[in-house]
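Objective 1b of the project was to move from sequence-level analysis to a structural picture of ligand recognition. The entry below was assembled by the postdoctoral researcher (A.K.) and checked by the PI before modelling. It contains the amino acid sequence of the target and the SMILES of the bound compound, pyridoxal-5'-phosphate.
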Amino acid sequence: MTMKQFGPTKLDAALVPKIAQQWGTPIYLHDQEYIENSCQQLLSMPNAFGLHVRYAMKANSDRTVLRVVTNKGLDLDCSSLGEAIRAHAAGIPFSRMMLTTQEVPSGEDRLELEAMIKAGLKYNVCSMTQFKLIADFAKSNNIDLSMRVHPGATGGGESTTRDTGSEYSCFGVHLNDVPTVKAMADQMGIRFTQVHVHIGSGGDPEKWRENIDRELGFVKSYFPDATTASFGGGLKVARMPGEKSADITSLGAYAKQRIEEFKAATGRELQMEIEPGTFVVANSGHIVTRVIDKKLTNEMNFLIVDGGMELLTRPLLYGSEHPITIIRQDGTLLSSEYDQALSAGLKSFGIVGRCCESGDSVRLDKGGNIVPVMIAEPEIGDYVVIGGTGAYSESMSPENYNSHRKPGAVMRTRNGELVQIRKKQVREQIYQNELDVKL
Ligand SMILES: Cc1ncc(COP(=O)(O)O)c(C=O)c1O
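Corresponding predicted holo structure:
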């Protein structure tokens, strides 16, 4: 048997059948070493007066992933009360979290929010309504706030659906509202000690760089009390061969220079904060699926695998591409989009999942048509491994669609062990909250 590695995490092809035999397919696979290394790279970014890195836990909220990341020294960015509570249940204190949410908590949720803020959670105000509702509490408890500013800038995302700073995005306090919110805060003696902008996910790194200048402009004009400027997440990661990741050293060096110039102009030393999700986990993940059927038609060849859009929605949602690797049942690496040496005799296949949706494919064009992938032809029972799936796959999938069960997950540890980190759902978990109502 050939022992060959594939993909950005250099996974041994021989591990794939082992994982499949022990835990079944489909299954999510993560890599501790990759996650730790990406955390380390982020923490080593050049900076002027300190760097604080938060992991945007929406990318992957699994407790083991959260523990690996926080053990490396990253804190968390939470996008809902639910995420904060989930991270807390994983043993992470609220004082290591910032909440940046569209929610406007009321009732019990509001009480939970107050308890979290008292325990040290940083509240990132994202609208005038949120400010008005938190102001008295902040004032009476002497709590400083952060403000997410909507910058009115396009192109921060890899697609329109991932732009969060444009005229079509509602995130944050819009620039036209900033002076009003700031005036209300000043009148009450509430301080905004942090300013935050997140312009989108996976966009052109040049846009990230431009945002630094824009944001430092707001900080100078409106936020005299700010000691931290968060430039958000969104750092691009190359999932496919031929793509280019953001050069975070160069982005850090630029931020450092601009923050030093800010100090020269204002006398103020700003700490830089960032909150990437994708950069930390995207390429740490693979989904292992098995070929369950094959159709060779006049129009297109199809491979039907035992996991698709209910495990990874990004192709359908964003038109995103993920690298495909084909592995035989004995662990032989047949083809990998990362390995040009294995390009002889490839055949074109549309790779589809089990859901009753024509868009249930790992590769689609912008019109939603299936794009065939050039791969070695597998037999039924062989494995199709989808790479670059550590972020926004298990945390954002329409799991349980067609009543498929959410798969389990395995972590390859730093010393190469395979450890199950989440069990596969049992069938009852799909319908356990349904009530037996007699109508
Ligand atoms: C406010 C905020 N911060 C950080 C992120 C993380 O983005 P990425 O995973 O592209 O780094 C997101 C993603 O949507 C976000 O909305």
